[in-house]
Amino acid sequence: MDFIAMPRLGVVVPPENPTAEPEFNRLAGSAAHVYAARFPATAANGLHATLESWNEALPGTLAQFGGMRLDAAVVACSASHYLLSPHGDRAFCDRLSRHTGFPVQSSTQAILAACEALDVRRLTLVSPYEPWLTETSRTFWRQAGLDVAGVVRVPAGDRFDPYRVTTADILAQVGRHRLDDDAALLFTGTGMATLPAMRALAEHTDQVLLSSNLAAAWWALRVLGKEADHPLLRRLATPSAVAAGSSQPRPNW
C-alpha cells in the first residue's frame, strides 16, 4: 500500500495528555497513521467543569482536522464521557459520526464494544482518578449493566494524577489487591501509561486486560478492517482471554 494512502485515524486528546498519541502509535503500528487534535486549554474552575467544557468543545475540536480525510476518529478522554450516561455517550458519538461523515467513538464506548465482543460482564477498575471521578466511572459501568467487582486505586505518590503514574505504581497497587479471577482488569483513563504494566501482567494471568487506549485502538482497527499486530491486541483474540465473567447476565448497553 502507498504510504500516504494508509488508513487515517484521528485521536482527540486533552491538552496536557502525554500518553495517548505514543500508545496509539504503538498499538496501530503499521496498520494506520495516527493524527491528533487537542482539546482547548481551559480556565474552568475545577476538574468537573473542565471535563464538561471538553464535551462542549468536542465538535469544534474534531473540526480542527479540516478537510483532511479521516477513516475514523477516537475521543481519547474517558473522564469527560463518564459524566454522560452510557446511552447519552453513545448518542453523542452517533451525532458526531453523522456530522463528520466518518465513525467517531469515545474510549468509553469502545470499552463497552470490547466487553460485548469478549463476553466480559465483570470488571475490576484500576483507576488513577480522584475518588469522586472513580466513583463516577463505577456508576457509568454499572449503568451499562456491568458488574464492578472491585477498584484498585493508583495514586501518583501523594496525589491522584494519571499523567504521573508509573509502571511501578500500577504493578505495586495491583499486586497489593486480591483480584477477582472472573473479572476483567480495566485500566481506566487515556492519560495513564499502561502498556508496559499490561505486558508484564499478561505473562502471569489469563484475565482479560483492557485499557481506555487499548480498547479504542481495538475498535479503530476493526472499523478500519486491519489486523492487530500488537501483542496486547492479539491477546484479545485468543480463547484464554475471553474467559472472564462468562456466567454473569449480559450487559444492557
Report the biggest beta sheet as strand number plus sense, adding barrel if it closes.
4 strands, parallel
Widest sheet: strand order?
Answer: 2-1-3-4
Q: DSSP helix count?
A: 10
The backbone outline, from C-alpha atoms, is globular
* Rg measurement, Å: 17 Å
| Share in β-strands | 15-25%
Low-confidence stretches: 239-253
* Terminal Cα span: 37 Å
**Helix/strand order:** EHEHEHHEHEHEHEHEHH
Helix coverage percent: 40-55%
InterPro entries: Iso_Racemase_Enz_sf, MaiA/AMDase
Protein name: Arylmalonate decarboxylase
Pfam family, one: Amdase
Organism: Actinoplanes cyaneus
Task: List descriptors.
single chain; four-stranded parallel sheet; Iso_Racemase_Enz_sf; Arylmalonate decarboxylase; disordered C terminus; alpha/beta; 253 residues
Entry summary:
By secondary structure, the chain is of the alpha/beta class. It has helices at 20-28, 47-62, 78-82, 86-100, 107-118, 131-143, 167-175, 195-202, 212-224, 231-235; strands spanning 8-13, 33-38, 72-75, 104-106, 122-127, 147-153, 184-187, 209-211.
Structure notes:
The chain has a four-stranded parallel sheet, sandwiched between helices. The protein has a four-stranded parallel sheet with strand order 6-5-7-8, with helices on both faces. Residues 239-253 have low confidence and may be disordered. Helix 1 (20-28) packs across helix 9 (212-224) and helix 5 (107-118) packs across helix 9 (212-224). It starts with 7 loop residues before the first strand and ends in an 18-residue tail after the last helix. By secondary structure, it is an alpha/beta fold. Strand 7 (184-187), helix 8 and strand 8 (209-211) form a beta-alpha-beta unit. It is built from ten helices and eight strands.
